[in-house]
Design goal:
The chain is of the alpha/beta class and about 220 residues long. It is built from nine helices and seven strands. Strand 1, helix 2 and strand 2 form a beta-alpha-beta unit.
Length: about 220
């Protein structure tokens, strides 16, 4: 995972307390937190023996990183945590992991999907998780979205909120124009093969994003 995404995720996480890094992979986020946040204790998890062995090797000697073996949130049962990070997975996988979110009612969840972020935003509301903050990380032509959410009543999300993010729409952070362009490219690709009511619906969605974004249009 790139440093841009790691730092965007870290900016959403608390600077002290106990943080879990679920599906930690090579331990990049855990190591960054241990190096830069003096008052943080990290629990890094992995669900398969090969990745777990690589994680253990990467984190060897790091006193503030504890390792747990297991899938999803199961290795964290009974743990009191200030935040849980789930990065670098698809939206559907993250939503499956969040089925256990109710066991961590006071915890901040920081989520970094690889794709299908609108699906994730809809699923958060269905799981009684409210979006409290968002970040964008730009890598070349690609924009990655990061979301912070807590268990709390969630207001309804409009279609534009689902597509672009309620906080991102309000704050227009760096990368917002590219995010709009990214969504427009996908919608225009679908529009080419659409007919009838679907064609009209997609045209309306394209206009809605264009009204949010007043920069140069991609063809």
């Amino acid at each position: 995972m790139s440093m841009a995404r790691l730092r965007a995720a870290a900016s959403l996480l608390p600077k002290r307390g106990r943080i879990a890094d679920v599906g930690a992979g090579d331990g990049a986020l855990s190591l960054l937190l241990a190096a830069e946040a003096e008052h943080v204790q990290v629990i890094a998890t992995e669900a398969a023996s090969g990745p777990y062995a690589r994680l253990a090797a990467a984190c060897r000697g790091e006193a503030r990183i504890a390792l747990r073996f297991g899938s999803g949130l199961s290795p964290l049962r009974g743990e009191r945590l200030d935040a849980i990070a789930v990065l670098g997975m698809g939206a559907s996988t993250i939503l499956q992991i969040l089925e256990g979110a109710a066991e961590h009612p006071g915890t901040l969840f920081v989520l970094g999907p690889m794709q299908h972020t609108p699906v994730l935003r809809r699923g958060l509301r269905e799981r009684s998780l409210a979006i409290v903050d968002e970040r964008l990380a730009v890598e070349g032509e690609r924009v990655y979205e990061l979301i912070a959410a807590r268990i709390a009543p969630s207001p309804p999300l409009s279609w534009l909120d689902q597509q672009l993010g309620p906080v991102v729409r309000r704050t227009h952070p760096p990368g917002f124009a590219r995010l709009c362009e990214q969504r427009l490219r996908l919608l225009r690709a679908r529009l080419r093969g659409a007919k009838g009511s679907l064609h009209l619906e997609l045209e309306g969605h394209i206009r809605a994003i264009e009204e949010e974004y007043d920069g140069p249009r991609d063809a």
